[in-house]
Fold this protein.
Amino acid sequence: MTAVPLVAHPAMHLGRWRLAIAAIAVAVVALPILRPAGPGNTGFVDLALVVAMLLAAVWASVRGHALQLPYALPVVLTVMAGSLAAATAGGGGHTLLALAQDVFVFAWSAAVATIGQDRPALDAFCRAWAYSATAWSALLLFAELAGLNWLSGINVRDGIRASLTLGDPNLAPDYF
């Protein structure tokens, strides 16, 4: 008789860190929810992203993964150049908001890259994105076929280009 070692399903390896993986998945699913926009163009998705970023940092520190910082040099150069331009041109609050948005997007990419070091976590992230993009696409098609322009995001200014809840028809294909 031959003994076959039992290999746990990849989801079992996530164990108690399912909360961090779930937070990343919820953030990915929420990415298209950009309307309605709050102050500083914030929305529900930003709250989901902040929670996911914090949990990803804790997850990485406890599991001993290195924090991945993709595009660090270009982001630092962009923020430095933007800060210099704001200081000399007197851009004020709008410039600081733009710089904060750059740093925020960089932190999200760092969270995704850090989580991506773990194969089961990366698999969960990619599945969440694929399934949610399919579901959001189905909702968009339903809204278009039912003539629900408020949901499909179709308006006179953009013609027949749909944006769903992304607010801009150019952002929709980036997500899908």
Q: What stands out?
A: Residues 1-12 have pLDDT under 50 and may be disordered. The CA atoms of residues 68 and 148 lie 42 Å apart. The two ends are 50 Å apart (CA to CA).
